[in-house]
Amino acid sequence: MTEPFSSPRPRGPRRAVIVGGGIAGLLAAAACRAFVQEVVVIERDVLPDRPAPRRGLPQARHAHMLWSGGADAMESLAPGLTGTLLDAGAHRIPLPTGMVSLSPGGWYRRWPESHYILACSRDLLDWAVRDRVLPGGGITVLTGTEAVGLTGGARRVDGVWIREDAGPARRICADLVVDAAGRASRAPRWLTALGAGPVREITVDAGVAYASRIYRAPKGADEHCPVFTIQADPRRGGPGQIATIIPIEDGRWLVSLSGTRGGEPSADEAAYLDFARGVRHPLVGQLLAHAEPLSDIAVTRSTVNRRRLYERARNLPDGFVAIGDSVAALNPVYGHGLSVAALGAVALRRELRRGGVTAPGLTRRIRRTVARPAGVAWGLATGQDVFYPGAVGRSPNPVDRLVSRYVNRLVETSTGSYAMAKALTDVMTLQSGLGRLVRPRVLMCAARGPLRPRLAKPPLTDRELGFLAPTSLAAQLGQDPASRPAGG
After folding, report:
1. What is the pLDDT of residues 39-77, one digit of tens each?
2. Architecture of 209-300 per CATH?
3. What residues contact 438, with CB distance under 8 A and at least 6 apart?
């Protein structure tokens, strides 16, 4: 590859180059800023200066949840982000208080708050991250620019080849290169070209398709609205189908329907509502029947679980790490991608604090620490996806089946035990690792089982019942007296 221009390595303080200017890339830039002279972000798209769609982020049209573990991580990297989001109309939804959810073990009770999620459109979240990170200085974003390879050798990466528009490639030197290019990352091939690697890759593909649409929320549902979700149950056999409503800014609902191979939703108008009514409970479909559609139906099938095991590769050069979807691209239905990216950026910053960008063994340590939250999210996603018919990648083995039975017991117990619900939510929000679920108190709770009877109806408040019409339908779904929020 020719080298018509070489951006020199700075003397003294150092330079980090981030491949990808999405949320993962900007959070990585924020993590690096205090430890280098300059951070350069390479981004193919043109980034809008307001909350707006961009070509390289088609998944923005589908539901995203920012669990509290990820939200807290983002706030630590970009102080003021939560306030910016809330001021722009995002919702802070307490968990499990603000979630109406049918789990494989039954309806969750709406216990007092132990965690939370931030709910908004992806366009708003991306803009808010840019708004909080870029004005801090020290970060240069090269938009309309594509990374096309790594420079250096098998022992150390020392830069990136980039191309702007159709021009010649040029080299930009770096002491640290962070791959945040996401699902489309070509870094494993680039490393092979340097004589490094290989990086083992594993996939689990349940054939999930997503169909999403924006609705205007019914009158009275635009403030303090819960998340509504009807989860799949792999134990039932057949495809897993899910329906979710997430309140977003400007009095709107973002509705995402998903189904595994053989049970996918479509963009057909009538079929969309039929799918929503045909999952394990018709609640979401009944809510949509009285909401105004504001957008077309967007469909995607880019949902394969893909894990690149950088932390296990023995022949990787110093000076290179990956975070976010470049490490673990997950089935979006579990909502962990954003949180994994944020926690990966926090891990990057933590290791840089230990000795700076030139510390011996730095990138090896970063790979290990980034892998921890990615591994938790991977286990949560694939531990369920492998059981759906037609899943490709691997079949469930005896250990998978044993773990699945245990997790099913935990979920069933959580429908009637606040302690168990909190333990599960600790893990789901990525605020604890999977080890949280085998602590003595959790084991005792699982042995004892639910302390309260299973709910017969969705745990709706009187105000939420007002979203449902006609009156006969609201009466049919009327609140189960046992479902009122309570501790215990």
Report:
1. 999 999 999 999 998 887 777 788 888 999 999 999 999
2. 2-Layer Sandwich (3.30)
3. none
